[in-house]
Amino acid sequence: MRAIQVKEYVKGPEELTVTTLPDLTPSPDSYLIAIHASATNFFDLLQIRGKYQHQPTLPWISGAEFAGVVLSTPSSKSNPRFKEGDRVFGFSQGAYATQICVREESLMPIPPGWGFPEAAGLMITVPTSYAALVYRAAVKKGDYVLVHAAAGGVGLAAVQIAKAFGAVVIATAGSKRKFEVARDFGADYTVDYNKDGWAEEVKKLTPEGRGVDIVYDPVGMVNTSLKCTAWGGKIVIIGFTSGNIEKVAMNRVLLKNVSLIGMTWGSYSKEAPMMIERVWGELFQLVKEGKFRGTVYTDRGFRGLESVGEALSMLGRRETWGKVVVSVPQGAESKL
To answer: Are 60 and 6 in contact (CB under 8 A)?
Structure first.
């Protein structure tokens, strides 16, 4: 197999190299998957530098999201959910490789009609956005929803989900191209959050200037967002891609009766495992109804594990939108 193995921490993704390693031997409770596409994430950039909260013991294979084909099923299961040849997507350490071993709970079936690239980026961003808006913020028809970094992976998922539930979506982004992308995926309005006074611009887009009902924030913009949040509104905190963990003016939260809501999908497997199947079932229904589509970055392509470094570099420089996915050729094809 071929893989991007991290033997020591690097300064940046441009230092990543592809290595030939022995083929994997799955444990009795694992599937062996041939990877056809790997999705990039911001935490990959932290992990390869040794700065993420979850650091595997060196050496390890980078990457976490993938889509591919089942090569073998767990020997310990008499009736596995997936069979050899099934097309699946999933999440597990070691996705920047041609093979990966994965437990059943970390796999999902690729929706009918979807390709490997579209499915590779589903496992983290989509359930995060769905659980945040539907179960944590209780989005409903007529709500005004402000989605920050709306052209990013979780952002485009949030835009589509909010629209599917009948909300009016105000999308923030930082470039003309990203405004175009956000609108293409359903946003009703776009606002440049790099400009002074953007919060006032958002308020003017809401009825009687009352402010938005829900703020979806993967960036770390709670303080400024409070200026354009309606009385009794909700701010869902997804992450801090700005790198800044805010100190929030709690007196303003109190005076406006605003709810600050945290959301991390990764904790659901331990704290609320019954919700995982429910969320995915509802998401697949949205896909079936044509209300959700893949968010793969298509302005340029990335083919082969050798292109992972450039894909991550562009992601880190905020030069992309949606999910940046690398196609992973198999066998002799990988040498072309």
So the answer is: yes
